[in-house]
Amino acid sequence: MPLTNAPTLETANLILRSHEARDIEPMIAFLTDQERAAGFGAYDNRHDAWRWVALSVGHWHIHGYGYFTIEDKASGQPAGFTGIWNPDGWPEPEIGWVVFDGFEGRGVAFEAAARARDWAYSDLGFTTLTSNIVPGNTRSVQLAERLGAWFERQYQNAYMGTEMLYRHPGPDMLDSDGGIEAYT
Amino acid sequence: MTRITVDIPVIETDRLILRAMQETDLDVIADFFADDRSSFVGGPKSRADSWRTIAGALGHWMLRGYGMWLAAERATDRPVGGVGFLFPEGWDEPELGWHLYNGHEGKGYAYEAAIAARTHGARHFGLDGVISYIAPDNTRSAALARRMGATLERQGTLLGHAVDVYRHPTQEAA
User: Fold this and answer.
1) Are A159 and A134 in contact (CB under 8 A)?
2) Is B23 on the interface with A (CB under 8 A)?
3) Chain centroid to CA A128: how far?
4) CA-CA distance, B153 to B87, in Å (whole number)?
């Protein structure tokens, strides 16, 4: 049963869909993985991780947008999450992405984040989006740049400390498929 | 762009309405969590974390099918506190919790709200004879639990903190 009002979106290899109860344990596993979640905000206990899952669900009910679960079509397994995140205190709505253990190296984050961005522009009417990246998270910087985003400024995030704010190309800078051919 | 789509029942008592928390309640909730009075319910915490408390409360309803209501004065919709059922990861079982926002103590609001929530939980959520976790030095909440007919069942720990576990009477016995 879907836990949010998120639509279901599709790409070649992935489905972006609402969080469901079966995602809770994979999400907690990611959030309590100190190494993997370091750039996202790791928790050292299951209670706080569960509460983050509830927060991610509730975010949709406040804003009408939030994180999707990324589902790998081939295996049917949750492979990560991506979407638009904008809790109180955030400088602007941001596109975030994480990939769960075992799903890296296949372009999952790129494929999912590009689809989420396209949805935000075409369905939500956003005209600009950002991604906040902790300095040193080179994989995320590479992905942001592959998505056509550029470094704009540093700012202080109440949870993560100093972060780099990357600015994504707006809808007028992307082609009709949400692609970024102009940047490759 | 606020879209509350969680099916959260509305309960009315003589003076109060129990309803979903909303982003528009943030000022009152952040004010409460800025104060040391919130130390028994996870505070003090920042305004940003208070926003996360609201979102998390809505998510809790979706994850569990029950959760925390905001209690507001019926006449004015002025928020007076939070009440309802909590069962996050780490809890032994669902608990009935309550707290009053700043300036609303001493009017019997917590009792009125908690009785209404307890009755609703027993009738509609299958939550009967629930517990309340109460910090040993939270004498006001312990007094309210006893006034509601709850009894001290045991001393336990919750997230590493010592707590008294009160057991509420079942609805037939209450």
Assistant:
1) no
2) yes
3) 15
4) 18
Task: Determine the angle formed by the axes of helices A138-146 and A108-122, rounding to 10 degrees.
Answer: 50
A59·B55 Cβ contact <8 A: yes
Determine, yes or no, domain membership for B116: yes
Q: Are B134 and B141 spatial neighbours (Cβ–Cβ below 8 Å)?
A: yes
pTM: 0.95
Residue A132: CB atoms within 10 A of its CB come to 21
Burial B42-52 (b: 16+ CB within 10 A, else e): ebebbbbbbbb
Backbone angle region of B82, left / alpha / beta, with phi > 0 → left and psi within -120 to 50 → alpha: beta
Tokens 């009935």, located at residue: B96
* % pLDDT > 70, chain B: 97
CA proximity to A166, closest of A89, A66, A92, A105:
A92
What backbone phi and psi angles, to 5 degrees, belong to A68? -90, 155
The interface predicted TM-score (ipTM) is: 0.94
Which of A3, A50, A87 comes nearest B52 by C-beta? Answer: A87
- Assess if residue B160 is contained within a domain: no
How far is residue A169's CA from residue A180's CA, in Å, rounded to a whole number? 9
Ranges of residues in chain A whose predicted pLDDT is under 70: 176-184
For domain A9-183, give the CATH number: 3.40.630.30
Q: DSSP letters along B101-120, please?
A: -TT-TTSSHHHHHHHHHHHH
Q: How far is CA A49 from CA A25, A29, A41, B99, in A?
A: 10, 9, 10, 24
pLDDT in tens, B137-150: 999 999 999 999 99
Nearest CB neighbour to B59, from listed A46, A47, A58: A58
- φ/ψ of residue B122, rounded to 5: -70, -40
Q: CATH number, domain at B104? A: 3.40.630.30
